[in-house]
Amino acid sequence: MHYHILTLFPEMVEQGLDTSILGRAKANGYITTEAINIRDFSDNKHKHVDDYPYGGGAGMVMQAEPIYKAYCSVEEKILAEGRKKPRVIYMTPQGQVFNQTLAQELAKEEDLVFLCGHYEGVDERILEEIVTDMMSIGDYVLTGGELPAMVMIDAISRMVPGVLSNEVSGEFESFHDNLLEYPQYTRPVEFHGRKVPDILLSGHHANIEKWRREKSIERTLKWRPDLLEDAVLSKKEQEYLKKLMEQ
Ligand code: ADE
C-alpha cells in the first residue's frame, strides 16, 4: 500500500506515521508514506496557498491550483510506476463517516491519496476535479485534515496483510462480527482484590471461547446496542442476547 498525503504540514504527518506498528510496517516495506507539501506547488512569491472567499465571509479558502499541481505530481509518479489512477480522499466533516468496513475495503487499494484541508475549506472546483471520496472520522470539527488522515491510515494499515503479526490478525478484534471485544486479563491473578475470572484459568478452550463470545455480546448490548442489528450470532447466541434483553 502506498499512501500519498497532500498537506500543508508534512512534518506532522511524517512524524505521526513513523512510530510504533506503522513505523515497523514502513521499515518492512508493507506500506510506504509520502507527505507532499502543497505549498511547494504555489506560484505565489510568498508561497501563499489560500485567498479570501468570493462572496465574502470569514476565513480563508485554499486555492485549487497548488492542490491540483501537487496531485498531478503524485498521479504522474503512480502511472509511471505502472499502477492505476488512485482514489483521492478529501478529509472533511461533511464526508461519509469512516468505519471498519471502509478500512477493509480501502486496504485493497494499491495507492491512496489523502487531501488534507485547512482554513475554512478548499475551493469547490478542486473537489470536482480530482476528489473521488469525501470522508469524515466523526461528527466534530477539527482544525485540519491531517489527524483524520492519520487515523484512517492507521486503521487501513492494520488490514494490510503483513502489517500485524500473524497471531493478532486485525479481524479478531473489536467489530469482528460487529461485536465489541471481550475483556482481557494478564498477570497477576489478583489486583487490588479483583480476581481474573476462574474460567480463564481453567484451560478449557471451548468454555473460554463461549464465555468470551457471551461477554462480547453483553458489552455490545450495554455500550453499543446500535451494532447488534448487524451482529453475526449463532442461534444459541441469539437466544443468549434475547435473555439478556429481558432482564
Ligand atoms: N476535518 C476537520 N474535521 C474533520 C473530521 N471530523 N473528519 C475529517 N476531516 C475533518
Q: What would your notes on this structure say?
A:
This protein is an alpha/beta fold and 247 residues long. The protein contains eight helices and nine strands. A five-stranded parallel beta sheet has the order 2-1-6-5-7, with helices on both faces. A two-stranded antiparallel ribbon has the order 3-4. A two-stranded antiparallel ribbon has the order 8-9. Helix 4 links the parallel strand 5 and strand 6. Helix 4 crosses helix 6 and helix 7 packs across helix 8. The site of adenine has 11 residues, from strand 5.
Shape, please?
A: elongated
- Sheet-strand content, in percent, reads 15-25%
What is the spatial order of strands in the main beta sheet?
A: 2-1-6-5-7
Largest sheet: 5 strands, parallel
The N- and C-terminal alpha carbons lie at a distance of 47 Å
List keywords for this structure.
elongated; alpha/beta; two-stranded antiparallel sheet; binds adenine; 247 residues; 5-stranded parallel β-sheet; 17% strand
List the helices and strands and how they pair.
Blueprint lengths: L1 E6 L2 H8 L2 H8 L4 E6 L12 E2 L9 E2 L1 H17 L6 E11 L2 H7 L4 E6 L7 H7 L2 E4 L9 H12 L32 E2 L2 E2 L9 H19 L11 H12 L1
Helix pairs in contact: 1-6, 3-5, 4-6, 7-8
Adenine (ADE) binds next to strand 5.
Give a short summary of the structure:
36% of the residues lie in helices and 17% in strands. The chain is α/β, with parallel strands linked by helices and 247 residues long.
